[in-house]
Amino acid sequence: MPATTAAKLPPINPYLTVKGADEAIALYQKAFGAKQKERMAAEDGKRVMHAALAINGGTVMLCDEFPEYGGPGAPSTEHPASVAVTIQYKRPTQVDQTYETAVAAGCKSVQQPQDMFWHARFAMLTDPFGHRWMLSAPLPKEKKKAPPKKKKKK
Predict the structure, then answer these.
(1) How far is CA 94 from the centre of its chain?
(2) Angle between helices 21-32 and 92-105 (to 10 degrees)
């Protein structure tokens, strides 16, 4: 990982291995509004050795698979990754909007947006590269109703 990336990252960031990093970057730009911060081509000129994408204030890094260097194989839709990437939003409407945009961009729905018992708007998708994405936002706090006023007796 380039030193410029390491100096600016939060303490934990997902690093995805994909088969087809160019296509994955394009999809994440459409589906999640990703902005490419860095990109390093592999020596073969065909694959991506490293890329860093800004998504909703966080960073997701990725690369193509490199089996010749003993790297992990990329997940697939038949064998999805066991770890998911979560995008935490501030407003429930952002979950709905991102979900719709991601499905239109080529992601598959696992769970449509819905209000969950843990007080969050939540949805889950899989991308064509075998990665799961969870979208979440806190639900507005319910205002407590004041108890009814007692009528004074005359």
Answers:
(1) 13
(2) 140
The Cα 132–Cα 78 span in angstroms is 13
Residue type, position 95, single letter? V
Distance separating alpha carbons of residues 111 and 152, to the nearest angstrom:
52
- Return the H-helix or E-strand segment holding 29: helix 21-32
pTM, full prediction? 0.83
Place of tokens 């501030």: 90
Is 60 exceeded by the pLDDT of residue 109? yes
Q: Which residues are CB-neighbours of 79 under 8 A, at least 6 positions away? A: 130
Q: How far apart are CA 101 and CA 95, in angstroms?
A: 10
Q: What is the pLDDT of residues 62-102, one digit of tens each?
A: 999 999 988 888 998 888 888 999 999 999 999 999 999 99
The CB density around residue 153, as the number of other CB atoms within 10 Å, is 4
